[in-house]
Design a protein that fits this description.
By secondary structure, the chain is an alpha/beta fold. 28% of the residues lie in helices and 20% in strands. The chain has one domain (18-312): L-arginine/glycine Amidinotransferase, Chain A (5-stranded Propeller), CATH 3.75.10.
């Protein structure tokens, strides 16, 4: 792979160099989430064998990220909790450069069990960061309102826009409330697969970087919805890379733009990279240096890709407040 020597633009406030990853203590296709996640596949393989394979992919992904110049904080999943999706921490919390930590309402009990205060204590006490406040939106669960973090909300942090594909895990009212609290403008739309099933998380069909947006536009409802998305991308000066339905199925939309020691970078799976055409790869490389991770077992069984495995850490460094 011949990456460009100079990506098109310097990394902006859109990207972080630090991510948190949760090493799993259990992993299997979660029956609580399978109904809304068409990317998820159950398997008859022994759970111990599956977990070993997943841990191997996880450790290799951590190594690839570190080699690519990304700072990775690894935390083990809670061994006392049955949390098969703990490897996907970006759904239950997000962090922000003003010091805020946000907790999000989750659709299923098993995913609610993933929330852990000790993660934030680790960031503050052991990694020299600080938090100014915590925005707890989990009480929305009592009202049946769900918005699952940066799975549901693809954030343009520079422009303060939040793209949201409405689904059983991304409710319109919850998106509005979250955006009001965060100070973001919601860009909501409907997105469905060929079977008319709602795309469960926005970050499966869309990723926004400092200068480029990757979008499975064929999934977005025609008319006002797609125009709303295109208009938002145009007014924020984002180039657009459209990907096909097959490429979305191979997690080419489930990617994350990051900062790194090497410059603006983008993390995507080997499966996603292989699905892209050579012209698409060249466009991506004009904006960011690819960091490839092999996570095929995680993608197939868990229904989430490498982006879902990365919780972006934007907390500022300094004394605890």
């Amino acid at each position: 792979m011949n990456a460009p020597s100079q990506p098109q633009a310097a990394t902006s406030a859109q990207c972080t160099r630090t991510v948190l990853m949760i090493r799993p203590t259990t992993f299997y296709s979660n029956p609580e989430t399978s109904a809304s996640n068409a990317f998820q596949h159950a398997t008859d393989a022994d759970r111990g064998v599956t977990l070993a394979a997943v841990r191997g992919e996880f450790d290799a992904a951590v190594a690839a990220l570190k080699t690519g110049g990304v700072e990775v904080i690894v935390v083990n999943a809670d061994s006392n909790a049955d949390t098969p999706d703990a490897i996907f921490p970006n759904n239950w919390f997000s962090t922000h450069s003003d010091g805020r930590i946000v907790l999000y309402p989750m659709a299923t009990p098993s995913r609610r069990r993933e929330r852990r205060q000790d993660l934030f204590e680790l960031l503050i006490d052991h990694h020299g960061m600080y938090s100014t406040s915590m925005l707890d939106l989990t009480n929305l669960e009592d009202r049946g309102l769900i918005v699952e973090g940066t799975g549901s909300l693809v954030l343009d942090r520079d422009a303060h826009l939040a793209y949201a594909a409405l689904s059983p895990r991304t409710h319109m009212q919850a998106v509005v409330i979250a955006c009001q609290e965060l100070g973001y403008e919601p860009v909501m739309f409907e997105a469905h697969d060929s079977n008319r099933q709602a795309i469960y998380h926005t970050n499966v069909v869309m990723s926004v970087g400092p200068t480029l947006a990757v979008l499975g536009s064929r999934f977005v409802k025609p008319g006002a919805d797609i125009r709303r998305v295109f208009d938002a991308l145009e007014r924020t000066n984002k180039a657009r890379l459209d990907i096909s339905a097959e490429q979305v199925a191979n997690f080419a939309g489930n990617i994350l733009f990051v900062d790194s020691a090497a410059g603006p970078s983008v993390v995507l799976s080997q499966r996603a990279w292989k699905s892209l055409t050579k012209p698409q790869r060249r466009i991506l490389e004009q904006h960011a240096l690819p960091i490839l991770c092999g996570v095929e077992t995680i993608e197939h069984i868990g229904g989430g890709g490498i982006r879902c495995m990365l919780a972006e850490i934007f907390l500022p460094s300094g004394p605890r407040l």
